[in-house]
Amino acid sequence: MTVRAVEVIAEADVVAYHSARHGRSIARSIAERHLRPDHIEERLVYPVTTETTDHPGGYRGAMEEFYAEAAARLAAHLDAGRTVAVLAEGDPLFYGSYMHMHKRLADRYPTEVVPGVTSVSAAAARLGKPLVEGEEVLTILPGTLPEEELAARLMATDAAAVMKLGRTFPTVRAALERSGRLADAHYVERATMDAERTAPLAEVDPESVPYFSMAVLPSRVELADRVELADQMEVPGQVELSGQVDATPEAARGEVVVVGLGPAGPLWLTPEARGELAAAEDLVGYTTYLNRVPMRPGQQRHASDNKVEAERAEFALDLARRGRRVAVVSSGDPGVFAMATAVLEAASEDPYREVPVRVLPGMTAAHAAASRVGAPLGHDYAVISLSDRLKPWEVIAERLSAAAAADLVLALYNPGSRSRIWQVGKARELLLAHRTPDTPVVLGRDIGGPEESVRIVSLADLDPAQVDMRTILLVGSSQTRTVRRGDGTRIVWTPRRYPER
Ligand code: SAH
């Protein structure tokens, strides 16, 4: 209890507190030695907690009536000139019952909210572990959320506290396991109270878990420091690129995860990808993409040039074979003209056949670019890379013509660079054999990034000089429309209906 809380109780005429029907109140028991015989006690007894109700308005109706009635009781004291202290366990505005009184009374009566020490702070203190350090993010979750939601949030955060355990414990445990965080999770029951209990969460019997307990994932910084220290002792200097390595017991946990970063920025990074990037010991990828991943203590980064995909894939598999947890990063979706294929190609053969590989999807550039103008990919479309670095131009030309003849919308990746510009000119020529000159073309450049630009031109006006490595082209079908809307913006969309033939 804070000094201010003690003062407030001393000055109050009325002390109010919520309780379940059994009548006990943890808040009251904490404040007990500051209560006097001349205090008027107002016990606000919940009509229902978790059981069902026969109230005509259901659970919500029963609660609403209870809060209104409780607020009226406190208002009667206030109207009579009495000062009311409402007791709240932890902090009153942090998942506390008091806030229902606050919402009903604070605009009518002078109100002071006395902040309290939350159970999250208490739990971290009793564990004796740093909770969040530096730029780490702390996420506080009610255990009543669905397992999937919990897992996604746990993957995307550094530290976490999951409150309201009890019956939710098996779900919370499953979510921790699914997010790969179970081994780091601690269990704290009745922190700072008499029957306090702390334990590694994985060892807790679900049957023994009361509501007054929480799961805590403390700071990862300390963890990372330990890994780094262990690494320095085991593998001095740079990891070698090649050479036969015997499988050690350590190698059993090695793995390559190919992670799609999305086209740009954290808004388009999935929680799953974020979690995997944080959990990796080694990050492998093209320098530009690696630079988009936040730095983490204890992680090793292996940046390389854009062109050496096969070597990069083998390098990653080699690290995993030595027991390292490796994330290979790709922009957009790793399976769309990107690293997933390179990794799987190498992993299909010795000596990497046994190395576990997982691919995590990301949002691909075509979808991000399409969203900026509306829905040009709303009907059937084809995805083609214009790069002739890995396939002959004749193949590209054939496919462009075939897709155009089939009246598909086209998403053209790798359309060109400052030096490689003739492909776009040639593609335009091929497409004009099947499409009218006014067919809309969307040029999306650095979508989601700081230099984003989106232009809508007609196929006849498509200028190869306006296309570079960071551009994607979306070419409409015969049905694709451009429309100017009321606010002056132009949108592009392809109807889902196709005319009868
Ligand atoms: N795996 C990536 C594609 C890699 S090929 C994905 O799924 O998006 C590289 C090409 O993707 C670039 O030449 C460009 O055509 C396109 N691209 C990637 N990010 C982009 C962005 N933010 N804006 C526009 N085009 C992008």
Characterization of this structure:
31% of the residues lie in helices and 20% in strands. It has 501 residues and is of the alpha/beta class. It has 4 domains: 3-105, Cobalt-precorrin-4 Transmethylase, domain 1; 119-221, Tetrapyrrole methylase, C-terminal domain (Methyltransferase, Cobalt-precorrin-4 Transmethylase, Domain 2), CATH 3.30.950; 254-360, 3-Layer(aba) Sandwich (Cobalt-precorrin-4 Transmethylase, domain 1); 366-493, Methyltransferase, Cobalt-precorrin-4 Transmethylase, Domain 2 (2-Layer Sandwich), CATH 3.30.950. Strand 1 (14-19), helix 2 (26-31) and strand 2 (40-45) form a beta-alpha-beta unit. Helix 14 runs parallel beside helix 15 (422-432). The radius of gyration is 30 Å and the shape is elongated. Residues 234-247 have low confidence and may be disordered. The structure holds S-adenosyl-L-homocysteine. S-adenosyl-L-homocysteine is lined by residues 263-264, 330-333, 336-338, 364-365, 369, 413-415, 444-449, 469-472.
